[in-house]
Here is the input.
Amino acid sequence: MMIFRILFLIAAGLLVMLNSSMASDDKESLLSKTFVVEGDHFYPPYEFINEQGQPDGFNIELFRALADELGINYQIQLKSWKDVWHDIENQQADIILGMMVSEQRHDKVLFGIPHSIMTHGIFVRKGSPVKSIDDLTGKAVIVQNFDRMHEYVLEKKLTDQIIPVESQLEALKLLSLGKYDAALLGNFQGEYLLDKHQIKNVKLRTSNIEPQKYAMAVSRHNEELLSLLNAGLYQLKSSGEYDRIYEKWFSVHEKKQLLHRYKYLWLILGPSIFFLGIFIVLLRLQVNRTTRKLKESNQASLKLVDDLQKKITFRKKMEKAFFQNERKFREIFNSTTEAILVQDINSGQIADCNNRTIEMYGFDSKEELFLCTFGDLIAETDDFSRELATENIELAKKMGSSTFECPAKRKDNQHFWVEVSFKHAEIGEEEIILAVVRDISERKKAEKELLEAKEHAEESDRLKSAFLANISHEIRTPLNSIMGFASMLPEEDSKELMAEYASIIVSNSEQLVSLIDGIVIYSKLQTGQMNIRKTSFSIGNMFEDIQRSFSLPEYQKGIQLIMDDQSGNIDTITTDYDKLRQVFNNLITNAFKYTNEGSIHFGYHTSGQQFTFYVRDTGIGIPPEDQPHIFERFFRGKNIDQTYDRGTGLGLSIVKELVELLGGNIILESELGKGTLFQFNLPVTFMKEFDDHK
Here is the structure.
């Protein structure tokens, strides 16, 4: 009684949880879907295609009533059992109308609450020597392909001669035609088909095969749908609708089977029963006369016997209801997607748990988990300890309940996040702590990603603000110089000074144009307006133009720009000239900014069809912690102080986006204080000019 009361409390709490959780967005999401429901196209009377070509049978009518009760959308498809099993394994079906429960199938599907029990037997031709399951050794045995009996023969290794067929009717017909030795089929389905198709020379032999539970099933990772179906099935049983459907499909067949099976016995016993009835009537008249006399003198005794009989009947009825409810609550207890634990309030030991608890914490059995306390399942961190878990248990004792989040650990010491709800309960003279544990690792991961996205957005906003402030300075500096020296030109008579002022104005104008070009290119890249225009051109001529463009005095500060000699004799390539030139301009300009002495090399090298360009300097280098961010927009290195031209922070991000737009990728190698190498590959086509073609 103690266990039943605990299970009753758990199931009641569980039903409340299911109702509350299924009233949320999860339920709305499920009700908005259309589920693919599949079953066997020939498995009467459970499921089959009727003469009108429509799905029919007990399972069909039961599921339709269930769907109406829950308000879910569905599409029923009946196929061969092999195809049904293939679809549920490959996540192409959501629900199977009915299948036998087995340990092997638990790895492939999630079973609902079993609503029927099926028995199986050996079907043989009349006169067959096969009497029991032990006689099947070495025999040719027919089974339905992928049916539970197919698995059973393989598990028990009954025989090596297994003949799988598409339906149970095919198995019976093969047996009737004298082929093979026996068939392992469902008792009810087999006798139903024998009677319907008038197969006279095949009969059922009983066996010691244990009864099999029969239930609906859903595909893996579909726990919310399973909980919804279980709740709907419970409502159909409570309302009596399940019993009505069952009576419609099975009561007539069961009665017919009973009469057919014992018809010869009735012929033999009929006359005997008739004469026995006459004897009983005469005897009853005599007994009534005697009883009437006894009743007058023993009325009180008869009343006592009647009361006792009523009490016995009532007790049997209550015992039957108790065992039925205990089984029902245990099935609900084990079908939930949350882990449920019952903890002894005095010792702290775990006294009971559901199957989900074993799965969540990675234990092999309940007995192994029963050696633990809840504190043993806590992952101690800087923010959480066993003491905090104990405090929450004490809070549940005092306040009745407590809910908190904490890191948990599996048997293999792998950590994950859970939400725990403690409830203090008193059952009789004993007290327990009921713990409901939900895995919230995915929610925690989403919260972390959301926080990181927020921080990234804030950092991006900060960098944009810094960029706007910096770009204002970058534009005003050359603009002020241009305006200042331009205003001085009319007042100056010296041709040497006028030429110097004009040179300064031109230099600052070029700097301003370059800055504006960079902003325009960045804007086009961000809005997707940058198009690729491929042309064929001389790579050597382009490199010479690049070298000439950096021969101005402002670049000649003791730093050499060296175009490396290209020994590959490649002259003509095909790609977008302007964008490739822009990439080199940005990389070389950047190298001049942060190189105080030494040299800057640029060029390319080939290996087979691989074409790699590069720019290498002897500058200040890039710190290792800055290298992952160097191509980000508005980013400028931490080692760049005010003595350097810090720029807008767009140059390298433009380089990376241009290279990727051209279909390539760029990498860097850098050592602090020794320089930096940028290399980028492009999918260009090229031609080699040999001496005899020059």
